[in-house]
Structures are given as C-alpha cells and as structure tokens.
C-alpha cells in the first residue's frame, strides 16, 4: 500500500515537474494540475494508513486514536483541492488572455506554436 | 474591543463582497465604500498596535482571539502582538494611499478594482494575524488570488505576460507550501504555531531530519514571495509591469514572505528548540546577502524607473532576510524599523514614478542611458544657456522634492528615517549589547552583512541620482505632467510619515526593540496562545 502510493506520488510529481519546464502554456497548466494531485495525495499520506478506519467517532464509542483515521489531513486535502481548483481556473483565463494578446501559446509570448 | 482582531479580516471581506453585485455605473459608491473601509482598517490597526504596546500594564500584550472559543490547539486562533500590529498598520497606510491614488484614474481601467483591493487587504491582514500554519496557507491564497486580479488590472500585453509568469511561479510555490505544512504535520501532529513550538523540543532525534526538511520546504515557499535570490527573478518584472496602485500594495506583499520567515524561524527554532536551534539561520543570512548583491547590481543595470523600483524591492527584501538570519535582538529591532521605512518609501516611489513618467515618450529613459554610454547625450545643452532663471513649475518642484526624499530613504542617507534604520542595524551588528557595552567580536556573517548594506546604499544613490537627473533635470523637450492633488497627496502622506518616523525615531525604536525581544524569547507568545484554556 505504502509502495503503491509512494510510486503514484512520485510518478505524478515527476511528470508534473517535467511539464512545468516546458515552453507551452498548455503543458504548464497540465504540469501544475499533476503536481497538485501529487501534493494532495502526499498530504493525505501524512495522516498514516489506517485502512478501513472511520474518521469520526461511531455512536457510543469513546476516543481511542488508534482505531480512527486522522480527520485533519482529510480536511486539509479538501481545502487544498478547492483552492487549487479555483486558482487553476483563474490561470486558465489568464492563459487565454495571453494567447489572445500575443497570438501564440509560448510562455514568454514569443512566436507562434511550432 | 476584543473583537477588533477579527474585524480587520471580516470588514474588508464584507465590503468587498458587497461591492461585487453593487449597481454602480460611475463607481462613486464603490470608491466611497472602499475608502471608508480602509480608513476603518487603519483605525483598527492603530488601536491594536496601541493595545499591543501599552496594554497589560506596560509589559505589552499578546492578545489571542479564539474563534468560536475553542481551545487553541483545536480551534483557529488569531494572535495580535507588536509585530503583527505593526504590519497591520503598514498595510492599512499603504492600502489607503494607493486607494486614494487610484481614484484619479486607475480605478476605471478595469472591472472590480475596489473589490479585489479589499480582498487583497483581507488576505494581508489575515496572514499577519493568524496563529496557525494552515490558515496562513489559506490567507496566502486569498491574498494571492486577489493579487492575480490586481496584477492584471488595466490589461495590456506586458501585464498579461508578466502576470502569467507571476501566477505560474506562485502556484508552484503554493504547492511547496502545502508539502512543507503536511510534512510538519506528519512529524509533529499539530499545525498551531505556538503548539508546534512547544512540541519541537520533544521530537525524537530520528524524526528531526523530516521536520527540518518540512520547515525548509515551507521556507522556500515564503522566500519565493520575498524574492530571495535565486528565487526572485520574477519580482522586478512583475512589479514594473503592474499598475502603480497595485505595485504600491504589492510592496507590502513581498514583506509578507519576510514576516512569515521572521515569525516562524524565531518561534519554531528559538533557543528552546533542542537540537534544531537556529535551523536555517545561516542560509537565510547568506541568501539575504546574495539578494542584496543581486538587487544592487540590477539597480545599477536598469534603465527604467519602474524596474529600478522593482530592484529596490529586492534590496529591501535581501536586507530584511539577512537581518533575520543574523539572529540578534538589536539587529532584528533595526530590521523592523527598516521594514516600516522601506515599505512606505517603496510604496511612495511606485506611485511617484507613474507621475514622473506621464507625458514623456515611452523608452525615453533607455535612449537617455544609451546615449550617455556612447558620450552622445547633451550636445544641445549649449543652445539653452540663455534661459538662465527659468522658473521651475510648482508641480516639478514637488515631484522633484518627493523623488529626492525617496532616494534618501532608499539609500539610507541622513537625515531621513532610512538612515536611522540602517544605523540601528549596523550598530546592532557591531555592538550586540548596546553602545558602551562589552566590545564583542563580530562574526564573518556580520561583516559580510555590514559591507553589503553599505555597498547597496552606494549603488542605490548612484542609480537614483542618475534616474533623477534624467527624469527631472534633463533638457529633453517634455511637458510638465498634469498631476492632480489627489494623486500627489498619497505620495506626500507616505513621505511625511517617513519624516515623522525620523523625528519620532526614539519611541518607534523602543516599539521595535520590544517587538524584537518578544520575538527572540517566544515563551510569552506560546504561553499566551496555549494557556488559559476555557
């Protein structure tokens, strides 16, 4: 389980960083999205892996932290997803504006797409 | 009175939210709402600073606001101490000045300027007040989202291109922020800053590298905002491309990064932190000095006034970071004074530049400097010698005097407060125990910082003098810019505040010294935030 998750984060993060270095805005935004998936999974993994454990107390049980999943990383991931989604949407608009103004999708606004 | 802290976040949020659906063709209502809200924010900030400095029987007060009255480790807390109150006052002053400036023309250059501006203020205030790492992330995103809008305000190819880079680099930095925060949570199990500082000494040795890696990654996210070399190449380009009112408030935004570094490095890695004492201090010192060097070179190399202002933001950030890295109470105190001075004077410079550049050809500066380089500039001087005694128009006199003040403040020359700030930092490096105390040996880092400070001042003087001669005294045919009172008033307000800080340097330095002492001995902060659970 740990290995699969670590590999998934690594592959997503690696592809994201590679795309981030590319000169086209579309590659840039896909790279940022992949990176944000990797980071979200990473935050999630920081709450350890109690498989099948509920994050809230069941009725009539008292708190034994070993039995429950840590709810805080889940809340953090939720916030991070919402914020990341909104900023990506905003970035998309700026990308379109840049494309309209410079006539190409190069990040420095040079030349037309090859 | 106890709700004042949260009011400085809620007020701009509500006002900004009301502005969006408001039916208002001419923009008068929005302007009135914006100004009212910002004036109120200023009043709140001054009250908070007053309380933080003089409350609690003269000892100073760390007031903690618990949202929903949850105990600090579980709930969200806002913490007002001297440092955050000072930052709130600076934000409100700069906000008010650039908002008044924008009323003349810039507010009409695009949609929702006033709403975005209020959200920007909300994000800044929240980032300065919050006592929780994840909330810091949320407020960072709020202020960044608003700043993306403000950066693009007025549109145009240059702004959109610079904005694209700005947004991309900040999105990447936010991801670093998240990685750092989650690593720290994974090791320490808390994100409340005070609780974290209390738990760090007990973290077992084998987990420490992970914690320090997390703190390092988190620090990178802040250093990108502060523009530390080599993370700050985006900064001069973006700051010179955005509209002047936005640039003035952005000069506060680069201070957010410095604030976060200052707060966290001194709180988390204070002398109680066990094996991690002073983690990263040397790196911040070295990075700060490199940033000063890079800023000084780019100040000299630049041919354009707005780029010059952007490069002085880099020098200011570098100076602050290096002073934080020096980790001495006296230096930190001087640095806080410098922070106030440089935020106000750079804000004034950004506003002033737009007034100076009005009514002149685009690229005139570039041409002037290039001509100078080829020794071909002022051949036509001789023709005009018969015009001795031409009256300087009043507008040019005011603009010139303001530019002179900005130059003195940024370079740190007497008699203005920039000099007091640099003097306080230098004397802190040389005499850590105050004048007349034991003569202490100065570390190599201290010497390097001293040299960097003095040389960066020299570079600023050279660059500002050249720019001033070219834009104010040059004989090129140019019309006197038409400047409204409403545009020059904010510049004069900011500069007169700097003059006020020069005159009131004693009380102001007492304030910053008390703030620095509290930062270097964070036990009070921790006890106030965690203790007294209901």
UniProtKB/TrEMBL annotation, chain A:
Q: What name does this protein carry? A: Na+/H+ antiporter subunit C
Pfam families named in the record: Oxidored_q2
Keyword Transmembrane helix attached: yes
Task: Specify the superkingdom.
Answer: Bacteria
Q: Where are the transmembrane segments?
A: 26-44, 75-98
Q: What is its main location?
A: membrane
Alphabetized UniProt keyword annotations: Cell membrane, Membrane, Transmembrane, Transmembrane helix
- Output the Gene3D superfamilies linked to this UniProt entry: 1.10.287.3510
Q: How does it sit in the membrane?
A: Multi-pass membrane protein
- Compartments, record wording: Cell membrane
By sequence similarity, the record places it as follows: Belongs to the CPA3 antiporters (TC 2.A.63) subunit C family.
Show the taxonomic lineage: Bacteria, Pseudomonadati, Pseudomonadota, Alphaproteobacteria, Acetobacterales
From TrEMBL, chain B:
The membrane-spanning stretches of this chain are 6-22, 29-52, 72-97, 134-152, 164-188, 213-235, 247-269, 281-301, 308-329, 335-353, 398-425, 445-464, 485-505
Could you tell me the keywords of this UniProt record?
Answer: Cell membrane, Membrane, Transmembrane, Transmembrane helix
| Name of the featured protein | Monovalent cation/H+ antiporter subunit D
Which organism was this protein described from? Teichococcus aerophilus
Family under the similarity heading: Belongs to the CPA3 antiporters (TC 2.A.63) subunit D family.
Q: What is its main location?
A: membrane
In the UniProt record, does the keyword Transcription occur? no
**Keyword Flavoprotein in annotation:** no
Q: Where in the cell is it found?
A: Cell membrane; Membrane
Q: How does it sit in the membrane?
A: Multi-pass membrane protein
Q: Where is the NADH:quinone oxidoreductase/Mrp antiporter transmembrane domain?
A: 131-431
């Amino acid at each position: 389980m740990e290995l699969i998750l670590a590999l998934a984060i690594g592959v997503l993060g690696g592809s994201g960083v590679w795309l981030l270095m590319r000169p086209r805005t579309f590659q840039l935004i896909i790279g940022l999205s992949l990176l944000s998936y990797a980071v979200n999974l990473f935050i999630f993994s920081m709450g350890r892996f109690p498989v099948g454990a509920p994050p809230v107390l069941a009725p009539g049980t008292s708190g034994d932290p070993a039995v429950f999943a840590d709810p805080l990383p889940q809340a953090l991931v939720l916030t991070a997803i919402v914020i990341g989604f909104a900023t990506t949407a905003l970035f998309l608009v700026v990308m379109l504006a840049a494309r309209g103004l410079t006539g190409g999708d190069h990040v420095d606004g040079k030349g037309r797409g090859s | 009175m106890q709700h004042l802290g949260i009011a400085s976040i809620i007020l701009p949020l509500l006002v900004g939210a009301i502005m969006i659906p408001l039916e208002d063709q001419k923009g008068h209502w929005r302007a009135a709402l914006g100004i009212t809200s910002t004036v109120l924010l200023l009043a709140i900030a001054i009250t908070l600073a007053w309380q933080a400095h003089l409350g609690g029987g003269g000892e100073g007060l760390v007031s903690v606001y618990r949202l929903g009255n949850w105990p600090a480790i579980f709930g969200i807390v806002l913490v007002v101490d001297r440092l955050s109150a000072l930052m709130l006052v600076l934000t409100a002053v700069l906000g008010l000045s650039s908002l008044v400036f924008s009323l003349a023309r810039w507010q009409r250059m695009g949609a929702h300027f006033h709403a975005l501006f209020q959200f920007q203020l909300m994000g800044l205030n929240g980032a300065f007040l919050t006592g929780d790492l994840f909330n810091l992330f949320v407020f960072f995103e709020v202020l960044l989202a608003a700043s993306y809008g403000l950066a693009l305000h007025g549109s145009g190819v240059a702004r959109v291109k610079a904005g694209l880079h700005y947004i991309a680099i900040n999105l990447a930095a936010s991801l670093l922020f998240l990685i750092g925060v989650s690593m720290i949570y994974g090791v320490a199990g808390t994100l409340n800053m005070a609780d974290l500082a209390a738990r760090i000494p007990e973290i077992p040795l084998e987990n420490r590298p992970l914690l320090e890696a997390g703190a390092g990654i988190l620090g990178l996210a802040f250093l990108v905002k502060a523009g530390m070399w080599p993370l700050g190449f985006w900064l001069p380009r973006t700051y010179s491309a955005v509209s002047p009112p936005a640039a003035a408030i952005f000069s506060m935004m680069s201070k957010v990064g410095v604030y976060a570094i200052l707060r966290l490095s001194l709180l988390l890695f204070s002398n109680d932190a066990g094996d991690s004492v002073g983690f990263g201090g040397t790196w911040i010192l070295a990075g700060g000095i490199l940033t000063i060097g890079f800023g000084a070179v780019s100040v000299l190399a630049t041919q354009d006034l707005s780029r010059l202002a952007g490069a002085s933001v880099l020098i200011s950030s570098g100076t602050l970071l290096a002073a934080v890295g020096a980790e001495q109470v006296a230096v930190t105190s001087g640095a806080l004074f410098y922070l106030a001075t440089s935020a106000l004077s750079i804000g004034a410079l950004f506003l002033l530049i737009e007034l100076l550049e009005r009514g002149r050809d685009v690229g005139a500066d570039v041409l002037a400097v290039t001509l100078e380089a080829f020794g071909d500039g002022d051949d036509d001087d001789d023709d005009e010698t018969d015009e001795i005694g031409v009256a300087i128009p009043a507008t040019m006199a005011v603009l010139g005097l303001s530019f002179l003040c900005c130059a003195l403040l940024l370079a740190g020359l007497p008699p203005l407060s920039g000099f007091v700030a640099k003097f306080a930092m230098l004397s802190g490096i040389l005499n850590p125990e105050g004048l007349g105390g034991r003569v202490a040996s100065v570390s190599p880092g201290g010497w390097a910082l001293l040299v960097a400070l003095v040389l960066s001042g020299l570079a600023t003087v050279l660059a500002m003098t050249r720019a001033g001669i070219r834009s104010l005294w040059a004989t090129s045919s140019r019309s006197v810019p038409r400047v409204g009172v409403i545009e020059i008033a904010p510049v004069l307000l900011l500069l007169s505040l700097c003059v006020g800080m020069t005159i009131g340097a004693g009380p102001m330095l007492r304030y910053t010294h008390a703030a620095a002492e509290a930062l270097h001995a964070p036990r009070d902060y921790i006890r106030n935030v965690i203790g007294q659970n209901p």
